[in-house]
UniProtKB/TrEMBL annotation:
It comes from Variovorax paradoxus. This is DUF4139 domain-containing protein. Residues 41-61 are annotated as: Disordered. Transmembrane segments: none annotated. Residues 1-307 form the DUF4139 domain. It holds the Pfam family DUF4139.
């Protein structure tokens, strides 16, 4: 399958068009055939994988370990050649012929009965067939991760459409303009209704800047037995649109994985989430930013640990 996602930023309508690419190489042209397509994938494994025992041992002495690594390195194979780069997508997708399609949903697959006869050449040429579409009002926001990249991106979120939607190539359009290609992967969500989030490129009218980070070391505790590291971060976001925007700012806070390391955090303003996307330590500020306005976000971290220990950042 393949998909097209078309976002209208004025109405916030997001339309997902589902398409099939049909090709055959039997040596005989198909003229006026009727097709029934299915999302079933019989080439996949019919049984799932099972776990192997988890065995824990002791590493060999360093000399034996080095000797074994040298032996493996001598017989290592040359790296595989790089995969060929896929050709870039065209700026605008061509208009597809229209077909009347009956859609049948069942528990494990979706079937599409194409009512009109179609022609499929035998030379492997792909014939694109629209199979239907899903449209609803999306939650549109501008999202940024300032510490990683001082840029903002437009994202749209909708509930996962009903039925089976296999992974496939995805073309993205914003207000009629092609913005790029991606991959459709409708996620599952064990904690509630599944949501689909699509990104529609950079928003050049939202300016993001990060102030220089402050990272200070010190000592504390009884007789200076503990060391202390203080990290201060600050970001400024400016909305140059003529209308307000829904703004989302992501920040990764330190998370202790050792009882000897203690972390204290202080955010301003208070984030809407402290475990965004079920990731502990990933905070998200969510606010509405008026036209022509700017706002500032700060994050202060105090990390305490034994003075003779070395912190390990992962």
């Amino acid at each position: 399958p393949s998909y097209r996602a078309l976002l209208d930023t004025t109405t916030r309508k997001l339309r997902i068009e589902r398409q099939a690419l049909v090709a055959q190489a039997t040596g005989e042209d198909w003229r006026g055939v009727k097709l029934v397509l299915s999302t079933g994938q019989p080439r996949r494994n019919t049984a799932g994988r099972t776990p192997a025992p988890w065995r824990i041992g002791v590493e060999p002495p360093p000399q034996q370990q080095v000797a074994r690594e040298d032996s493996v390195a001598r017989f290592a194979m040359a790296p595989a050649p790089a995969a060929p780069v896929a050709p870039a997508a065209k700026a605008m997708a061509p208009e597809r012929p229209l077909f009347d399609v009956n859609v049948f949903q069942n528990s494990f697959a979706t079937e599409f009965d194409v009512t009109q006869p179609i022609d499929v050449p035998s030379n492997g040429q792909r014939v694109a067939m629209p199979l239907g579409q899903h449209e609803e009002t999306a939650q549109v926001a501008v999202r940024t991760s300032p510490r990683l990249e001082q840029a903002a991106y437009l994202v749209a979120e909708i509930a996962q459409p009903e039925g089976v939607w296999p992974a496939g190539a995805l073309q993205l359009y914003r207000d009629g303009a092609f913005v790029g290609s991606g991959q459709w992967n409708a996620p599952g969500n064990i904690d509630g209704p599944a949501r689909v989030t699509l990104s529609f490129g950079r928003d050049e009218l939202v300016r993001v800047s990060a102030e220089p980070e402050r990272d200070n070391q010190g000592s504390g505790g009884f007789a200076g037995s503990r060391a202390e590291r203080q990290v201060q971060r600050a970001y400024v976001v400016e909305n140059r649109h003529r209308t307000p925007i829904a703004l989302e700012v992501l920040e990764a806070a330190p998370v202790s994985v050792n009882e000897q390391v203690r972390v204290a955090t202080q955010f301003s303003p208070k984030p809407a989430e402290l475990a965004w996307n079920r990731q502990p330590g990933v905070a998200m500020w969510r606010t509405e930013l008026g036209a022509g306005l700017r706002t500032r976000f700060t994050a202060d971290y105090t990390i305490g640990y034994p003075k003779d220990a070395r912190l390990q950042d992962r």
